[in-house]
Amino acid sequence: MKPWKIIFLIFLVVASVMVIANEPPYLNNKGYIFGTYYNISYKHKEDVQNKIEECLRTVDKSLSPFNKQSVITAINNNTDITPDSLFTHVFLLAQDISSKTDGAFDITVAPLVNAWGFGFKEGYRVDSTTVDSLKQYIGYKNVTLKDGNIIKKHAQTMLDCSAIAKGYGCDRVAQLFNSLGIENYMIEIGGEVVAKGKNNKSMPWSIGINKPTEDKEGTNTQLQEILHISGKSLATSGNYRNFRYENGRKLSHTIDPKSGYPVEHNLLSATVIADNCATADAFATSFMVMGLERAIEVCKENNLEAYFIYSNEDGSIAVHETEGMKRYHK
């Protein structure tokens, strides 16, 4: 080999080593927010967990019904308050998805969720009289935004954004990362995910979908499927973790806003991929309300990709996925 080629080769090796040495590391932050855990990985020159926490506290202060000082708590208590821009954005998105799902997604379902013991207030014994008395306060059309303020038709109506807030929290952290110039990240809050760029192996981010086995403690690590995503958001809703038995009957935490009762159908889990996580979160919840057949139709109507796990009549587990979902298996 000629001397100049050797020198050039050495230069390339040295330059490559210097580039690798100057590459920022992949960092991982974990914590607790919205009554669940978050797990965030990102490639950056410095740890930004303080900024992440500040970002998530802003969402909590606006949307958490467990936070006595939040905007949504003030609205539920009929306190005179002008919602912040964050609450307004989520409210309008929720109303839009309610319209697209014919009310299957409905943030006014809170009184029923609370009554059944799955909400932010202590539950109580529910019978048909209780359900009928509460249903009059349920319905997304009973709440409007007028001149920047929330107007409720009934003072007893309460709002609960739990089925969209985790997804929106992911979106807010993603916005923070984008503003900081972070291009490779995976944000996961309570199972809702936003992923961009590549992981530390220079591959799209791998996101697992749990097998829908009864798992109230959240310890099940068996996976039904692994998806590979980048530049997309993913949310999963299921009835295999949050439930209880009453008089031998399994009660799901998913309450149908129209019937007033926990849903009873064969859909066990719905995973949705969308451009933003708040949208994926809300549609995944609505699919668990409406069941498999209608969920498939709504996917087509809204150009959504989804992965459904359901049970057959003999109790065996089956899967249905939209055609576009298949590209995320690779």
Structure explained in plain terms:
This protein is an alpha+beta fold and 330 residues long. It is 35% helix and 25% strand. An 8-stranded antiparallel β-sheet has the order 1-2-5-6-9-12-13-14, covered by helices on one side. Helix 2 (49-63) packs antiparallel against helix 7 (162-179), helix 4 (85-100) runs parallel beside helix 8 and helix 8 runs antiparallel to helix 9 (292-302). The radius of gyration is 23 Å and the shape is globular. The two termini are 42 Å apart.
Characteristic terms for this protein:
single chain, 330 residues, eight-stranded antiparallel β-sheet, 14 strands, globular
Topology at a glance:
Blueprint: H1 3-22, E1 26-33, E2 36-43, H2 49-63, H3 71-76, H4 85-100, H5 110-115, H6 128-135, E3 143-146, E4 149-152, H7 162-179, E5 185-189, E6 192-196, E7 205-210, E8 223-229, E9 232-238, E10 243-246, E11 249-252, E12 267-274, H8 277-290, H9 292-302, E13 305-311, E14 317-321
